[in-house]
Amino acid sequence: MQTGKIGVTSENLFPVIKKFLYSDHDIFLREIVSNAVDATQKLKTLASKGEYSGDLSGAKVVVKLDKDAKTITVSDKGIGMTAEEVEKYINQIAFSGANEFLDKYKEDAHAIIGHFGLGFYSSFMVSEKVDVITKSYKDGAKAVKWSCTGSPEYTLEEVEKDGVGTDIVMHISEEEKGFLDDQKISEILNKYCKFLPIPVVFGKKKDWKDGQQVDTEEDNQVNDTTPAWTKAPADLKDEDYKNFYRQLYPFGEEPLFNIHLNVDYPFNLTGILYFPKIKSNFEVQKNKIQLYCNQVFVTDSVEGIVPEFLTLLHGVIDSPDIPLNVSRSYLQSDSNVKKISSHINKKVADRLHQLFKDNREDFEKKWDDLKIFIEYGMLTEEKFHDRAMNFFLLKNAENKYFTWEEYEKLVKENQTDKDNNTIYLYTTNVTEQYTFVEEAKNKGYDVLVLDDVLTPHLINKFEQQYTDKRFVRVDSDVVEHLIRKEDSAKEELSWEQKQELSPIFQAVCPEATDYSFIVDFKDLGESGSPMVITRNEFMRRMKDMSAMQGGMNFYGDMPENLSLVVNTSHPLVKTVLDAKDKKLGKNLEELTASLAVKKDEIAELEKAKEGKKDEEIPQADKEKLDTLNSELVKLEEEKRGQLTEFGKSNKLAKQMVDLALLANGLLKGADLDKFVKRSVELIK
């Protein structure tokens, strides 16, 4: 028996491995099984060159769990090692300056393993002792056993072993005994080894017998050695792609279509990406793309490795040019990764454009499930945005689809305002904004449906890109003002008149905390609605974006301001105004006259102050001005109070406000119940 020390200049290697790989401590099985697969493939390569004549037809990797012995064993029939090779590959770890290495990489678990070929040593994360029993394929080679307890000391001795290959026996430590569980091992193998190119066997397949599961004689192979992405696209049918998707996501909804990646220059890349159905609420999981390196699972968290919007896709990417076990920051800065990311970006855009050109009708049917993905890409990747303009679609309230150019031609003549801006009218909910949509259509306008959470961001981007185009939601103003063809010729109320009428209708607006009302008066014609509630386009859009971004935000924290537009030409509004004149006419006239006198006196005193310093103004004038201002405020409050009380008592005013609220889906609960009862009273 030979004893010795592993060739490192620091005794801190094993503690570092145990400590800094702890968050990924189940990765040890991937490393050991992957090594076994590599050893098997190397021997197959030698056999193909005539350098090995043994039978490899049944080559496989076997994982065995022995709960009594507290061991996990990984066995292969691969290339094996001689005693000299054990010394070279296991004892003399091939790097110089181990202390420098440990200092540099101790914070980065992934850099320790893989980047320096230390995959085997991940076994010590879970083991108190590791045995390597191996026999080389070379003629006359003797089997040897290497043992180590996780310290630099080891033993190496000759042993008997049937056949070539290697057994890695891991004696699981007490603190990691959770790995001595069949279900746990199955889960790890299914995660990391599901598509390895050499059969991986764990136990026997089970069958039901006498009400319980029993082992059969058939090996339980855990992996598919030739998954769909490793095959040529010409050899696969649509059903093959669908079956592979079900293999990846057994409970997933069937995807819309797929892209098969197959590149060998200037880098190697294979894979299959699927377009899932993405709903407008944007509730998606971004861990659906699985990244592989030579069929070895690396990660399913690919943010930063592929463009952000592509993380919404499902499927598999496999590239030997992506390092297997390095840090996320390394992957994000790696030149090959950047090239791969750019290629996938272009490939996705090309595939979508081709689908659009080949079968536009089918593409339109899938648009509502695709649009979130495409919009997300257009917002986050400029190159994708430029390509996507070839197949980006706009859908209108008639459920017709248009490219950007087609829609511009449709609306340019009729929906260009007095400032030569083309106005794109849109609704975010056809049902809730039905009245506004219909009024716009009755004016001969076309209305788009932009109903997902990315709408505010997307239309902002379009408006920045096309400065002569504006997006206006149909409920942001009365229909006459949505697209101003010319300055209004209708005579509007004076500011004083609005001041007098505003309290009547302000008094019957709901006292909500999440939105407030600004009352305005416009002549919408006798056939127009008596009252219309509109939402300021800018403020609403800012609030929508704030809601999506989350967290504290200036616009998001502000109450929503709604405009209650009172139609001064409507007969019902005139009825309320006539009732106001009948009940308050004399009082209002007297108050208005008193206010006018006070304002004139104040104006005279203010004029007398002009050009004078404060000490030059008589004290009597100062006191009189203060008194007049105080009396003016009281008179205005009295006038407003009378108008407010009249408004509160006027059922017709309240009914018209509630009708406007009802049309906007804002009348709920007790207010809705009162409206219904009041409606019955008014009908009687």
TrEMBL record:
Residues 588-645 form a coiled coil. Signal peptide: none annotated. It comes from the Bacteria. It holds the Pfam family HSP90. Residues 24-176 form the Histidine kinase/HSP90-like ATPase domain. One of its GO terms (molecular function) is ATP-dependent protein folding chaperone. The keyword Cytoplasm applies. The keyword ATP-binding applies. ATP binds at E31, N35, D76, M81, S96, G97, T166, R328. SUPFAM superfamilies: ATPase domain of HSP90 chaperone/DNA topoisomerase II/histidine kinase, Ribosomal protein S5 domain 2-like. Keywords: ATP-binding, Chaperone, Coiled coil, Cytoplasm, Nucleotide-binding, Stress response. Belongs to the heat shock protein 90 family. NCBIfam families: PRK05218.1 (NF003555). This is Chaperone protein HtpG. The lineage of its organism: Bacteria, Pseudomonadati, Bacteroidota, Bacteroidia, Marinilabiliales. The gene is htpG.
